[in-house]
Amino acid sequence: MVIKTPEWVKNAIFYQIYPDTFARKVPDRQKWLLDVPLEDWEAPPTSQGYKGGNLWGVIDKLDYLQDLGVDALYLTPIFRSACNHRYHTQDYYAIDPLLGDREAFDHLLKTAHDKGFKVVLDGVFNHASRGFFFLTISWKMDRIPPWLDWFKIEGWPLSAYDGSRPANYVSWIDYRALPRLTTITRQ
User: Fold this and answer.
1) What domain range includes position 144?
2) Any coiled-coil ranges, and where (predicted)?
3) What is the CATH number of the domain that holds 34?
4) Is the separation of the CB atoms in 27 and 56 below 8 Å?
5) Which of 10, 43, 156, 159 has a CA 20 to 30 Å removed from the CA of 49?
């Protein structure tokens, strides 16, 4: 397999954005976002707290990024997750509601592209969250689901939360919160 790097990447100036701490802007129709318990914006971030940065905030800072000479944005995961860094993906098809919604994402892409930016999303496809639907439904079913081979199950019952019992599935760096997905590599 030959991997060909796109030409635009070779000279691109990337800016990596961790949306939760980058910038926050809340549209009037989404004021509920300010009702979520957030850490003080000026306080040092913690591993469990949320600052409330979002996609609207990224859109608001595009002129600033353009003035820096940036022409490619690399966003850490934006998919629905139970963590501020969003590497614990629960749904690969949904934008995390704290970051915005599909409208915010579409507006970000259109505005960024209109300004000449390329946008790259960080997708984590070697592990998901223990809250990933296809894993949680698996331990609740009374039969083997067809997608169970997405995970390497080592025994039953599965235990995603009770640390006194074995998880019984392979996880990323043996961290039960991140069940590893079975991936196929092509030679």
Assistant:
1) 126-186
2) none
3) 3.20.20.80
4) yes
5) 159
Could you check whether the bond before residue 166 is cis, i.e. omega within 30 degrees of 0?
A: no
* Alpha carbon distance 136, 138 (integer Å): 5
State pLDDT tens for residues 141-183: 656 777 888 888 888 888 888 999 999 889 999 999 999 998 7
Residue with tokens 């639907």: 133
Q: Please give the C-alpha separations between residue 60 and each of 12, 133, 187, in angstroms, as whole numbers.
A: 21, 33, 43
Contact present, 15 and 68 (Cβ < 8 Å)? yes
Residues 27 and 85 in one domain: yes
CB–CB of 88/103 below 8 Å? no
User: How far apart are alpha carbons 118 and 8 in whole angstroms?
Assistant: 9
Each residue of 39-91: pLDDT tens digit?
A: 999 999 998 899 999 999 999 999 999 999 999 999 999 999 989 999 889 99
Pairwise CA distance, residues 158 & 154, whole Å:
9
43 and 115 together in one domain: yes
Structural domain ending residue among the three candidates 75, 95, 121: 121
Q: Kindly state the DSSP code that residue 147 receives in the 8-state scheme.
A: T
Rounded CA Rg of the chain: 19
Q: Which two tokens stand for residue 163?
A: 């640390």
Cβ atoms of 39 and 46 closer than 8 Å: yes
